[in-house]
Amino acid sequence: MTVEYKIKIRTGGRLGSGTDADISVVLVGSVGESERHKLDKRFHNDFEAGKEDVYTIKSQDVGDLLLLRFTNSAGFASDWLLDFAHVTSGDHSWHFPHYRWVLGNSTVEVLEGSAQLPQNVRHVRAVEARRAQLENRQKMYTWRPAVATTGLPGALDISKEKPLPKDELYRNLTEGSYETVIAKTLAALRMGMPLLAKAWNGLVDTIDLFKNLEVPQLAQRWQDDHEFARQAVQGVSPLHITLIPALPEGFPLTDAEVRGLLSPGTTLAQAFEAKRIFLLDFEILDGIPMFHQVNKEGVEERRWAPASRCLLYLEDSRRLRPLAIQLGRDPAKDPVFTPNDPEHDWLAAKIYLRCSEGNTHQMVSHALRTHFVVEPFVVASMRNLSDPHPVYKLMRRHFRYTLAINDGARKGLLDAGGVFDDFIATGGPDKGHIKLGQKGYSRWKLLDNKPRPDFERRGVLDPAILPDYPYRDDALPLWDALEEFVSNVLSHFYKTDADLVNDTEMQAWWKDLTEHGMPVDKLPCAELTRVKDLVDILTTVLYTGSVHHAAVNYLQYEHYAFVPNAPLCMRQPPPTQKGLLKEKDISEMIPSKSQTLWQVAIGRALASFGEDEEFLLNEGGWRETYFHEPEFLAIRERFHDRLRAQLAAVNDRNATREVPYTVLQPNRIPCGITV
């Protein structure tokens, strides 16, 4: 019996997504397959970027559609980005989401898009198609040899011979790639260079760099103690502040040294007893090699980022202020500085502390705890979860561009000769920044990226203890919304734990992840046998790639661009005596002009959104829709309703904040790590 099928096809919207190649299709169903049909309408430019085309095909009835087999003929610029195909025949309809490339001179099978666990697939041909898809992906996505990622999470193997799959590349962005932003920022900075022909003084001259760029708002208040403390709770690295019950070991501080800094009549012991003293501690830098190099002319260059720590005090006004800073761990040679010390001593101590925080932030809070720990989940998913798997459908959108930015960061920032060697204290021939990442990973578990246990561990979950902590107050509702979203989706498929145990694709995912991606002791369970553990893991990964990454990434320009606020290297060792520093000494400590330019450019690039960025709460909805079933669209809408309510709450809080905290607005949090 001959049947008429109507096929609606949408081509991707980015520049270069369309093709002039010949595209043909074979319909494969439960009782057979059609002949190959060329998709071509007379006097019509088929498959243009962002366009939908509809074709009518007459064929013998092939039964329930299982897949569409597209063939792309070779030719100039023939690669084609297929968003989806939708097929109708009479009262029947089938949806085929893809959102990937059909390369020139290739054939691709696009599986029917109904979400299904592998054990519930009934048609042998559909089972074979899922298996074939994964076999092909496993050839495209291979793990980097273990020796190449020693002490770090597993990663995708990328080389000149085996480049990043095109599906993972940035999609012809003309303005939004971070390399483009770096180049444009450096050009804008250099336009102002004639004004800076005199000897460089970073304390004074940095502000002149912003003639052609936006001036970071904190540039006018960066020396203020309350501003220094504010950055601990809503700055670029709000993950360190910890309530402590007593002075840390090796931190010599007396009541006399803090006279006038505590509430009237209050001693240090009483302040600790009242739970009003908090700690920022960058002990992780202890023993990490710092930049040290002698060039061909015999000129030596050294950089410092000490293993410093800082006490913060909660004043009667319920505002934080820095109380004391130690730029090392040895009480015999590392004095404790306080606001009662000479002006330049105290300013230098704050700058060194921010440098310590910055090096820790870049390699641990940011690179390791977001970019690198998410990558194994991307690779394991692409290798083991076929398109119709519900977990693939849930996660794929949130993995877009993560492999691309990680590859770019390794080559451009972290590898030998990369930008970090130019201006980061831990960069250089001894690879201190890599050792810092490895040290951070040795101490890390996935549980550490869950916000509520992290706040509890640091003693700052209770607003009565730390009243003004914008990161906490904005992050927790987002975690709860994500957790509900993930749980609601998975509960439709995993009615019992046995459903997860019998899911061959998820069990292969787990085996692959734990053998090549990260050791099982980094994960919350030894075996993937409970649905609650899967919900927990996937929620943490989604939170890490969206909320956590937004918090530690998108304030980089504001935080780092005015370099004296948070230099990423110091050019002199920390002071060991008080009362000797002058302003000119501090200007010689902070980054050089060249290092300053790089820090501004990198900060601006990494804090930029791409042209095609999609946010958790995206105006007009998400372009890539992997679930098409009404019940899942309803779950997504409930998730977005929660995000809308959270956006309103954030806006209300920001209306009364002296400095608004905007990076965790749901409509400004990208779905994943794209930069």
From TrEMBL:
It comes from Melittangium boletus DSM 14713. GO terms for biological process: lipid oxidation. Gene3D superfamilies: 3.10.450.60, Catalase core domain, Lipoxygenase-1, Domain 5. Residues 115-675 form the Lipoxygenase domain. Keywords: Lipid metabolism, Metal-binding, Oxidoreductase. GO terms for molecular function: metal ion binding; oxidoreductase activity, acting on single donors with incorporation of molecular oxygen, incorporation of two atoms of oxygen. The keyword Oxidoreductase applies. This is Lipoxygenase. It comes from the Bacteria. PROSITE patterns: LIPOXYGENASE_3, PLAT. Residues 3-116 form the PLAT domain. It holds the Pfam family Lipoxygenase. The keyword Metal-binding applies.
